[in-house]
Amino acid sequence: MKIGWFVVFLLLPTWVGAQKVVFINPGKSDEAYWVGASQSMALAAESLKMNLEVRYAEREHLRSFDIARELIARPADSRPDYVVFSNDHAVSPELLRLFEPSGIKSFLAYSKPSPQERAQTGQPRQKFKNWIGSLEPKAQDAGYLTAQALIRKGRALKAYAPDGRLHLLAIAGDRSTNSSILRNAGMRQAVKEAGDVVLDQEVYGDWTRDKAAEQAQWLFQRYPQARLLWAGNDLMAFGAMQTLEQRGGVVGKTVLFSGVNTSDEALDALRRGRLSALAGGHFVTGAWAMVMIHDHHRGKDFVDQGLELEMPMFALFTPQLADRFQAVFNGKKPIDFQRYSKVLNPRVQRYAFGFEQLLK
């Protein structure tokens, strides 16, 4: 998704009397995935006539707390009704604590508290009454789908080591974010099911290109028999590719790569064969959260379906699906989110959020 298209968000009209939502975006304001997440929320806000403000933490998770304090310090009539945030780097316990006495309702999107954090957070609407719920993509799917496809490609190219097995390296995101943990679990599940694959080592690249490039340097040196590299996102895959090419290797031949996300760079790499597997679509989680918040604000609670929803939003991309995706989102085509609202479309009895349905 093109970063320049973010002007759509900046030009959103202000809807008089509509609920005000702030998204504390954990990513950088020039980071394709997280800008895309904000853009999809802006599309939903425009369709549903909601007011959306996006604040970027710029991958500095402590900045999330500063943003929260600034929102809480605003005059009562300028505060948001709802704040949406992700649990990247385990920020949710402190953010929930900060927002609770303010009366601002909290909604977690993309990543919820881990099991280890539940002693601090409890469940929605219990310890923190204003935490109304959460929505996250089924993160395990991303790791499983990409690892499966990468293994299939490795078999097709007979990328076996002298021991007759495929050797795989993994550069994961971080150790604490729940979605990172689950992506890694999906990857390991695919490796276990394959039977002919060895996971040589798993490291953490903190979602960044530079750190992954540095780690790949010694991974390739230590494991010359490994010809598959699974990465938890696209940026880390690109960092590892850069290192391979500096060592004289050929991306897509010497080593096969997988990634997650739908940046233009990732989609182009898929078409060119530089990425052998790519999953994405989960950036729309925030847009679906806007639908739930819209309905909740208008008296249609989602408690009957569950307060912490997890839905399959990842798709394994092909070049054809990439073309469809870019035609819809980069073409600035309006998306009718009203048809997914229980308030605006009484035929909707249960939310069934996904990704590919938005491309129809």
TL;DR of this structure?
It is built from twelve helices and twelve strands.
Please describe the topology of this protein:
Layout: H1 7-10, E1 20-25, H2 32-48, E2 51-56, H3 61-73, E3 82-85, H4 92-99, E4 105-109, H5 118-121, E5 131-137, H6 139-156, E6 166-172, H7 178-194, E7 197-204, H8 209-222, E8 228-231, H9 234-246, E9 256-260, H10 264-272, E10 277-280, H11 285-297, E11 308-311, E12 315-316, H12 319-329
Parallel strand pairs: 1-2, 1-3, 3-4, 4-5, 5-11, 6-7, 6-8, 8-9, 9-10
Antiparallel strand pairs: 10-12
Number of helices: 12
Determine the structural class based on helices, strands and strand pairing: alpha/beta
Strand line-up of the largest beta sheet: 2-1-3-4-5-11
Mean pLDDT: 93
Radius of gyration: 21 Å
Global geometry: globular
What is the helical fraction, as a range of percent? 25-40%
CATH level-1 class of the largest domain:
Alpha Beta
3D structure, described in words:
- The protein is α/β, with parallel strands linked by helices.
- The chain is built from twelve helices and twelve strands.
- The chain has helices at residues 7-10, 32-48, 61-73, 92-99, 118-121, 139-156, 178-194, 209-222, 234-246, 264-272, 285-297, 319-329; strands at residues 20-25, 51-56, 82-85, 105-109, 131-137, 166-172, 197-204, 228-231, 256-260, 277-280, 308-311, 315-316.
- Strands 2-1-3-4-5-11 form a six-stranded parallel beta sheet, with helices on both faces. The chain has a six-stranded mixed beta sheet with strand order 7-6-8-9-10-12, with helices on both faces.
- β4 (105-109), α5 and β5 (131-137) form a beta-alpha-beta unit.
- α3 (61-73) runs parallel beside α4.
- Residues 1-11 have low confidence and may be disordered.
